[in-house]
Structure formats: structure tokens, C-alpha cells
Amino acid sequence: MAGAWMTFVWAFVVGGIICAIGQVIMDVSKLTPGHVMVILVVAGAILDGLGLYDPLIRFAGAGATVPITSFGNALVHGALAEAERHGLIGIITGIFEVTSAGVSAAIVFAFLASVFARPKG
């Protein structure tokens, strides 16, 4: 039972650290949230390219797969896997193959939110 609780603790700690890094970047610089998001995606891509993000996922679970850095990880993972199978064109197709479900879900849920939520303005 203690092992399961530690999984939750480490997921919370690692996810919190990733989010805190993004918040610190916004607080100490004049970068917009969009710029910080791009920095975190690129950081996740670089960490995956260096072979460091998968061990982080094994250690922290959802703490590493939920933050935006995981999107960069997914992009590189898909591109490298398809590049091995299909060469140069696989880089492009791999990016779309791995991320299409998440992007599609985001579009559908954003649409549904816009249908049911009426912003005050």
C-alpha cells in the first residue's frame, strides 16, 4: 500500500516541479504564457531526444505525462519511430500519427465547452 501512495506523491512532486518551472519563467521574464508553453514543449522534446524523458515517465507516471512537456516527448517519439520505418517522410507522418488523438480530443472538447458554456462579456 505504501508503494501506491509513493507513486501518487512522486507524480504530484514531478508534475508540480514542471508547472513551477513554467510559472517561474513567466514571473521572472516578460514572456507570455504562449512563449512559456513553447519552451516547455521544446524542453520535453529535447529531453526525449536525449533519452531522459522516458525514465522520468517511468518514475513519475502522470506527473510527467500530463504536463505540456509530454507533448514534446510525444512529438519526438512519434517522429523517431516512423523515421526508422519510413525514412525522412516518416518524421512528418510520425508527428501526426502520435499526436492526432490528443489534438482531436482537444478540438472536440473545446467545441463542446463553447456550446454549453456562455462566456460573460
Low-confidence runs (pLDDT<50, min 5 residues)? none
Please identify the structural class as seen in this structure: mainly alpha
- The Cα radius of gyration reads 17 Å
Task: Give me the strand/helix succession.
Answer: HHHHHH
Spatial gap, N to C terminus: 49 Å
Give the biggest sheet: none
Q: Write down the overall geometry.
A: globular
> What is the domain total for the residues?
1
Q: What does the average pLDDT come to?
A: 86
Number of DSSP helical runs: 6
Structure description:
This protein is an all-alpha fold and 121 residues long. The protein has one domain. Helix content is 85%, strand content 0%. It has 6 helices and no strands. The chain is globular, with a radius of gyration of 17 Å. The N and C termini lie far apart (49 Å). The mean pLDDT is 86.
Summarize the structure.
85% of the residues lie in helices and 0% in strands.
What are the key terms here?
121 residues, mainly alpha, 6 helices, 0% strand, globular
Any chance you could write out the topology, listing elements then pairs?
Layout: H1 2-28, H2 33-49, H3 53-60, H4 62-65, H5 69-86, H6 88-116
Helix pairs in contact: 1-2, 2-5, 5-6
